[in-house]
Design a protein that fits this description.
Elements: H1 5-25, H2 38-58, H3 65-69, H4 79-87, H5 96-106, E1 114-116, H6 136-146, H7 148-152, E2 153-156, H8 158-162, E3 176-177, H9 188-200, H10 204-221, H11 241-252, H12 255-273, E4 278-282, E5 288-292, H13 306-313, H14 319-335, E6 358-359, H15 361-380, H16 384-405, E7 406-407, E8 412-413, E9 416-417, E10 427-429, H17 483-496
Parallel strand pairs: 4-10
Antiparallel strand pairs: 1-2, 2-3, 4-5, 6-9, 7-8
Helix pairs in contact: 1-9, 1-17, 2-4, 9-10, 9-11, 10-11, 10-12, 11-12, 11-15, 12-15, 15-16
């Protein structure tokens, strides 16, 4: 998901902050959704039908399918009445006016189930804010960006908790920071950079709220969903919750906060170690390594992009092929890199997405970091056996990353492709030609942990990122990378040089 304009400004701003020290120095998975179920699913099904009719009524130009699955029911409307009225609209398509009148009658505006909330720890110019920035112009710009927190902070309306069947938005206990624009809800890995920015802005309580909302979701679902919508509960996103908790602890020393969040880290780790995500692979020395992959619990069109997914799948002839494509699309969304040729057998054809058959460098690095963080927190709160267990787990994953993903010829880590001619079960034998030798920014995410191979010289020129021949235009391709990946890489360089 690309960051919308306001969040993108924040990401760029805090990327600049993180660069200052450097600059100054120089298979199919389960088909069922893990969704809300029952009446919430009934609303979602209705909204997807509204989405489909709206496309016919309004046309494809500037059509946003997500808008329709974000609509809450109007206060005086029922799902049954809305469904009946939808069925009675003229066919094959109502006019624009008829469609707009229908939506206005039965639904409240998208985003109306979030309400503005002033962050109590916001100060116009926080004490100790950017002490090394001397330029008046740079400081003025920084304060303008800092002021965006007031515009992006919300609370979920109380009505969502009282009548969840009338909303696709998930109820959350604390204040939220939304990306803005069409992204009206919390997203998992976006929240990591939100928290980092809030800490720079000295907004520690809001940072805790953002993080404890994710803890609440783990307690409810067993993992952090992609985002705080019922239609996102069939997949997660890159697991950075432990990093948020660690950053907040290092800034505040709040042990109560750590103890509150700690059980959810164990639960989230179990999710990523479950059969759905775990892959066993034997290296050349006969050692079996357990590694992780992205794999959504879904094989249907993504509700927020159903009309797009269905159009892409239309050239596939069998139901099984379409279900496999939908599964791979959702799994790619779980990666956060939706979309990139990194996940495609043919960079010109989106239907060749193969994400669940790939062992990704970045995901396994994030889980290694999670295991290190859990070991640290467990020791901090006096849980020595847990600390020892996760310390050993992190060492095992480090060895796995080095054995399976490291490429000494290229001095970098590479995604590993599993064969797609089976059901992705059992123990796979490592093959050197199964590493993806294309250069992606994700190849260097292990530097984020300073987990570089002893033979890697970070003073060598970094590889040139080149577009793949014939590659279709994708959000995560070549120069279209977003601030979060740049932050990982440039932060690494600032540490290592």
């Amino acid at each position: 998901m690309p960051p919308p304009p306001r969040l993108h400004q924040l990401l760029v701003f805090f990327l600049v902050l993180l660069l200052l020290p450097l600059l100054s120095a120089i298979h199919m998975a389960p088909a069922a959704s893990a969704g809300e179920g029952g009446v919430e699913e009934a609303l979602l099904g209705l909204l997807q039908r509204v989405q489909s009719v709206a496309l016919r009524a309004l046309g494809a130009r500037d059509f946003d399918p997500k808008l329709y699955v974000d609509l809450p029911l109007a206060a005086d409307a029922s799902a049954a009445a809305a469904a009946a009225a939808l069925a009675s609209l003229p066919r094959p398509a109502p006019s624009r006016g008829e469609m707009e009148a229908y939506i206005s009658r039965y639904f409240a505006p998208a985003g109306s189930d979030l309400v503005a909330a002033d962050p109590p720890d916001f100060e116009r110019e926080p004490r100790g804010f950017l002490p090394k920035v001397e330029s008046a112009a740079a400081r003025a710009w920084a304060l303008e960006v800092h002021a965006l927190w007031k515009d992006l902070t919300r609370r979920v309306a109380p009505a969502v908790a009282v009548r969840p069947e009338r909303h696709t938005l998930l109820s959350l206990p604390g204040r939220v920071v939304v990306p803005g624009s069409r992204f009206r809800e919390v997203y998992y890995w976006d929240s990591y950079w939100v928290v980092r920015g809030l800490l720079v802005s000295k907004m520690y309580e809001t940072a805790k709220d953002v993080t404890l909302n994710l803890v609440y979701l783990v307690e409810k679902y067993g993992f952090v969903p992609n985002g705080a919508r019922s239609y996102y509960t069939n997949r997660s996103q890159p697991p950075l919750l432990s990093s948020m908790i660690l950053d907040i602890y290092m800034a505040t020393g709040d042990m109560v906060f750590v103890r509150r969040a700690f059980p959810s880290l164990l639960k989230e780790h179990s999710f990523w170690m479950s059969e759905v995500h775990n892959v066993a692979i034997m290296d050349n020395h006969g050692h079996v390594h357990n590694m992780s992959r992205y794999q959504a619990m879904w094989n249907k069109p993504r509700p927020e992009s159903a009309t797009i997914d269905e159009e892409l799948a239309s050239k596939l002839t069998s139901t099984a092929a379409k279900e496999q494509f939908y599964h791979q699309v959702a799994s790619t969304a779980e990666s956060g890199w939706d979309f990139s040729s990194r996940w495609m057998r043919d960079s010109t054809d989106m239907t060749t997405l193969t994400t669940s058959y790939i062992i990704p460098v970045d995901l396994n690095t994030f889980i290694l970091k999670m295991e290190q963080d859990i070991a640290f927190f467990a020791k901090l709160i006096g849980e020595s056996p847990i600390s020892e267990r996760f310390s050993e787990a992190s060492k095992a994953r480090y060895d796995a990353i080095e054995s399976v993903l490291w490429n000494s010829d290229m001095d970098q880590w590479l995604d590993y492709w599993l064969p797609t001619d089976g059901n992705c079960q059992g123990i796979y034998l490592w093959k050197p030609n199964s590493q993806n030798r294309a250069i992606f920014a994700s190849n260097f995410v292990p530097l984020w942990l300073n987990a570089q191979h002893s033979g890697l010289s970070c003073r060598r020129p970094l590889p040139v990122f080149v577009p793949m021949p014939g590659c279709i235009a994708l959000f995560w391709e070549y120069l279209k990378l977003y601030g979060n990946i740049y932050q990982h890489i440039f932060h690494d360089l600032g540490v290592l040089f």
